[in-house]
Design a protein that fits this description.
about 160 residues, alpha+beta, Structural Genomics Hypothetical 15.5 Kd Protein In mrcA-pckA Intergenic Region, Chain A, three-stranded antiparallel sheet, elongated
C-alpha cells in the first residue's frame, strides 16, 4: 500500500513524501542561491558564487543574502557582476548545472539595455594606445603627447 502526503513547509516549498517499503523520496521546490547561480551559469564555480554572496553582490527581492539562502520560483534576483547589475526572475529550479542553451528555461532576464551600453562606454574609456606597464614612451608617443597638450592649451585661450 502506498501513502502520499503533501504539505506546505514554506512559501512555494512543497515536500512530497512517498512511503513504499521504507523508501522515502523528497521532491523540493527550493535551492540554495549559490547553487542556483552556478547552475544557470552566472558563475563558473560554486565557490565564486558563494564569495559573491558573502561580498553582498547578490540580492533576492531587494535583500542582501547569504549563500545558504533558499531561492524559490518567481523570486527576483539582482546580481552585480563585471560592473553590470543583472536583474533576473526565477522561472524554475534545475536539477543540476544546465547547458548554455537551456538557461532561459530556468530564468527570465530583465536587465536594462543601459547597463550593457554603460559597459561598452567603459571599455572605450579604457582603450589606450599603449598598454600600462609597457615601458617608457617612444619618440612618437612623446610627440603625440606634446601635440595633444598644445591643442588643449590653444583651445583654452
Amino acid at each position: 500500500m502506498t501513502l502520499l502526503f503533501i504539505f506546505e513547509v514554506a512559501r512555494y516549498n512543497f515536500n512530497i513524501i512517498l512511503y513504499k517499503n521504507i523508501n522515502v523520496v523528497f521532491i523540493n521546490n527550493y535551492m540554495r542561491i549559490d547553487k542556483y547561480l552556478w547552475c544557470v551559469r552566472y558563475y563558473k564555480t560554486r565557490t565564486l558564487a558563494t564569495t559573491a554572496c558573502k561580498k553582498g553582490h547578490i540580492r533576492i527581492n531587494n535583500d542582501i543574502v547569504k549563500p545558504s539562502r533558499d531561492v524559490y520560483p518567481q523570486d527576483k534576483i539582482e546580481i552585480r557582476l563585471n560592473q553590470i547589475k543583472y536583474q533576473i526572475t526565477v522561472n524554475d529550479l534545475p536539477e543540476s548545472r544546465v547547458g548554455a542553451k537551456l538557461v532561459d528555461i530556468y530564468r527570465t532576464d530583465h536587465t536594462p539595455k543601459e547597463q550593457f551600453e554603460a559597459q561598452e562606454l567603459l571599455k572605450y574609456a579604457k582603450d589606450y594606445y599603449r598598454e600600462k606597464g609597457v615601458g617608457r614612451p617612444t619618440k612618437k608617443d612623446r610627440r603625440d603627447i606634446e601635440d595633444y597638450n598644445e591643442e588643449a592649451s590653444n583651445s583654452d585661450i
